[in-house]
Amino acid sequence: MTAAQLQLFALSDFPLVEPGDDLARLIDASLSANQQTLEEGDVLVLAQKIVSKAENRYVDLNQVEPTAEALELAVAVDKDPRIVSVILDESTAVVRHCPGVLIVEHRLGYVMANAGIDASNIEHADSGNGDDLVERVLLLPNNPDQFAADLAQQLNKTHGVKVAVIINDSVGRAWRNGTTGLALGAAGLAALDDRRGDKDLYGRTLLVTEVAVADQLASAAALLQGEGGEGKPLVIIRGYNFESSPERCNGVSALLRDKERDLFR
């Protein structure tokens, strides 16, 4: 049963996250500061960056010695060869590239630009002339599905309610301009809702319908999180009727299309 309405709200003044921070504790403190409490069935959507920062997924580019492959590819895509080297280290295959664009298959199976590696919204050294020197980048979390599962378990225990957790990021798409939200990790709900076998409005059996629930919720949350300096990495979605039975909590891996069925590879 789909929800008749959803409520989404971002927690204000969430603190800047440092390596080793306990995100569950920061979330609890932010809930109190915003005079909010978690309710049964809430979905918490966390921006990928705060998870990566807590896991200290930084790479110091000054410590990177580009490989021969990275040096050659960097010329083709017009990127810093050190960053290209880090991208290749986090990837299993280069899918497409052209000047300014490098699409790869991440080690966790996502197909995305630059393996999700980014230099935005992290602290850099000041050059003294008003520009930031890009000396480090931030990788995606080690295992977003597991992080989401662990966090959901902590929050469920602390607050006495069942909640779901999604870790999201913004990505481009092969067939559309602009970025949209994408789930990198999910726990407590069916990331992919298989509707095959259900009936439509006229009683016709659905044959191919599978709903990317986690991606839809991630994208909705991204509207509040923003892409720049909004500083709102945590969004609570209330009113979505998810089923939390273990057999339906399939994780984001369920959303990854097999290469053999991917017409863009």
Element-by-element helix/strand order = EHEHEHHEEEEEEHEEEEHE
Output the CATH homologous superfamily of the largest domain. Answer: CofE-like
Shape label: globular
- Rg from Cα: 20 Å
The CATH topology annotation of the largest domain reads as: 60s Ribosomal Protein L30, Chain: A
What is the number of beta strands?
14
Main beta sheet strand tally, sense and closure: 5 strands, mixed
- How much of the sequence lies in strands comes to 25-35%
Q: Compute the number of structural domains.
A: 2
Strand arrangement across the biggest beta sheet:
1-14-2-10-11
Q: Which structural class do you get from the secondary structure elements?
A: alpha+beta
Can you characterise this structure?
This protein has 265 residues and is α+β, with helices and mostly antiparallel strands. The protein folds into 2 domains: 7-55 and 142-261, 60s Ribosomal Protein L30, Chain: A, CATH 3.30.1330; 58-138, CofE-like domain (CofE-like fold, Alpha-Beta Complex). The protein is built from 6 helices and 14 strands. The chain has helices at residues 23-33, 48-54, 68-77, 81-89, 144-159, 213-225; strands at 7-10, 43-47, 58-60, 91-98, 101-106, 111-113, 125-126, 132-133, 136-138, 164-173, 176-187, 193-194, 210-211, 234-238. The strands form 5 sheets. Strands 1-14-2-10-11 form a 5-stranded mixed beta sheet. A hairpin with a 5-residue loop joins β7 (125-126) and β8 (132-133). α3 (68-77) packs across α4 (81-89). The protein is globular and about 55 Å long.
